[in-house]
Design goal:
Elements lengths: L2 E2 L2 E4 L2 E3 L7 E2 L1 E5 L2 E6 L1 H5 L2 E2 L3 E3 L4 E4 L1 E6 L1 H7 L3 E2 L6 H14 L5 E6 L13 H6 L5 E5 L4 E4 L1 H7 L10 E8 L2 E10 L2 H5 L7 H17 L2 E9 L1 H12 L6 E7 L2 H10 L2 E2 L3 E9 L29 H12 L4 E6 L2 H15 L8 E4 L16 E4 L1 H7 L3 H5 L9 H8 L3 E2 L10 H10 L19 H7 L2 H6 L17 E4 L16 E6 L2 E2 L1
Helix pairs in contact: 2-7, 10-11, 12-15
Length: 524
């Protein structure tokens, strides 16, 4: 007699992503886990189920893992002005006015502008915002999350004036083209002065944000997301929603680097449930390249005497690294510029001697100097976002000059580290993991630019890319024993696609759709 199980899937092209990257045709699921994987006959001869899926030859992979994103931030962004894709500052202003007319707010927020996409590739000023919104505070966040444009009302409420000084960033001032004074652009640490006057989201806002982010993520085949920076209250809300069955997506939560929250979780120890894993701390080393906040060893090629800045001073990074090395927690540090990367890598090496398998990560690992890549041979994991390369390639050489040859160097990082974890950094980039896959393999944007690809020696193969979005990402989370591949005993997280990302013409990869996303054997 055949064994009855919860689900049987047959007639599929299953990329198991096991150690040999083998393919299968079918599998059986019971109690949320894969219990058998093999040919159609091997599965149907042994198992039966009331729920039988004939995949009709479609591709199936393990559930996709986004190794670096801002899941909660994506959800909150659904409640503010969407400025992504604006082609001019005038378009930014129009969107803000339209949003406010439809959704009057006491504090007006937006996110997504990028001056590099405009004809005039310069930071805007607050002049127009002051005219349009003289009495309502406005804060418009740059797409990378590393700069605000705010109006005078917001500056006044935050107590920011000509004399205000904040280390680790910049209050941008301008003396040109008829403008003199504070422009309203704040880069990195000064942004916290604005954060302190923003209304906090209500509990209802937070729940709606998490559910909106889950809906968007599941539609793209994501079954686990690594949220790069959450406070204690949000982590606890996620846990309660998951336990109540109101949130099904799995979350690897990085604790935001505040002393109170870090001390709380270190003392508590790792938190692990079937859907939540809290065992890491997210640290900001420097700022972003697009806003010239990334910390470089030599001055910016397009801004003499400007080197960017560390958001967290090197001595504080070293002290925190020492503290976390004595705990069970992983340290995951944002490092964009070559100066920030080497500072963090040295701190890691210093404190991890003799500490065994710690799997600390460099988030982004975006610009490195030859020789500094060697640090990744010591068990440090690069966690990168391939679409950053195809978004930044239009202006990266302007910022870096010849140093661009050591930027977005994913193949070099993989060769040194042995693995590479892949993500999107959404909502900085689009949520779609298929754009991640395409950027990693083709090193082009969706228009096919540049012809032949951007620094193609750093492209990944399709197999390496799929591993980076599944088993290697799981490994980076200490979860390779429970997810990341389709093997007996692992959680039945998997995705059925309309096209096969491993075989379709490369230009079709961005158009792939996740037709069904399963978590623990249940379609979500």
């Amino acid at each position: 007699m055949k064994e009855k199980v919860d689900l049987v899937v047959v007639n599929a092209k299953v990329y198991t992503v096991d150690d040999s990257f083998s393919e299968a045709q079918a599998f059986a699921v019971q109690d949320g886990k894969f219990i058998a994987v093999g040919t159609i006959d091997e599965i149907r001869d042994v198992y039966t189920s009331d729920q039988l899926i004939d995949a009709d030859g479609r591709a199936i992979t393990p559930g996709l893992i986004d190794a670096h994103c801002h899941f909660y931030g994506l959800g909150l962004n659904q409640q503010i002005v969407n400025l992504v894709g604006t082609k001019s500052f005038e378009e930014v202003l129009e969107r803000v006015k339209e949003f406010h007319a439809a959704n009057p707010k006491s504090f007006l927020r937006g996110r997504g502008w990028d001056q590099n996409d405009w004809e005039v590739k310069e930071f805007p000023t607050k002049t127009e915002l002051d005219t349009i919104f003289p009495d309502i505070p406005v804060a418009l966040e740059r797409i990378d999350g590393h700069a605000y444009l705010v109006n005078q009302k917001a500056l006044d409420m935050a107590g920011i004036d000509w004399s205000t000084k904040v280390e680790g960033g910049e209050i941008v001032k301008k003396w040109a083209n008829g403008y003199s004074g504070i422009t309203g652009v704040l880069v990195d640490n000064p942004m916290t002065l604005i954060d302190s006057i923003m209304p906090s989201p209500t509990l209802e806002d937070k729940i709606r944000a998490l559910k909106d982010a889950e809906r968007i993520s599941l539609n793209h085949g994501l079954t686990t997301v690594n949220d790069a920076g959450l406070d204690r209250s949000t982590i606890e809300l996620i846990d309660s929603l998951q336990q109540a069955g109101e949130l099904s997506i799995k979350i690897y939560a990085m604790v935001s680097n505040t002393k109170e929250d870090v001390d709380y979780f270190i003392n508590k120890g790792p938190v692990k449930t079937d859907r939540l894993n809290v065992r890491s701390v997210k640290v900001y080393g420097d700022g972003a390249l697009g806003s010239r906040g990334a910390a470089l060893k030599e001055e910016y090629s397009d801004m003499p005497k400007h080197f960017g800045a560390m958001i967290t001073p090197v001595d504080e990074i070293e002290a925190l690294a020492k503290k976390l090395a004595s705990s069970e927690y992983q340290m995951n540090t944002h490092a964009i510029g070559d100066s920030a990367n080497i500072a963090v890598l040295r701190a890691y090496k210093k404190v991890l001697q003799g500490k065994g398998d710690r799997r600390w990560k460099i988030e982004h690992a975006q610009v490195l100097t030859e020789g500094d890549f060697d640090y990744f041979e010591d068990g440090i994991i690069p966690s990168v976002q391939p679409t950053h390369a195809t978004s930044d390639m239009y202006w990266a050489e302007e910022r870096l000059g010849d140093r661009v040859s050591g930027a977005y160097a994913y193949k070099t990082l993989l060769n040194k580290a042995g693995i590479i974890a892949l993500g999107t950094d959404f909502p900085v980039e689009d949520v779609s993991p298929f754009l991640t896959f395409y950027a990693a393999v083709a090193r082009q944007d969706t228009s096919g630019y540049p012809k032949g690809g951007f620094q193609m020696e750093e492209a990944l193969t399709r197999e390496e890319t799929l591993k980076g979005m599944t088993i290697w990402a799981a490994y980076s989370n200490f979860e390779e024993g429970e997810k990341g591949s389709i093997e007996p005993g692992k959680s039945a997280d998997f995705v059925i696609y309309d096209k096969d990302m491993m075989t379709v013409p490369v230009e079709e990869i961005p158009t792939i759709r996740a037709e069904q996303t399963f978590i623990d054997g249940i379609v979500r």
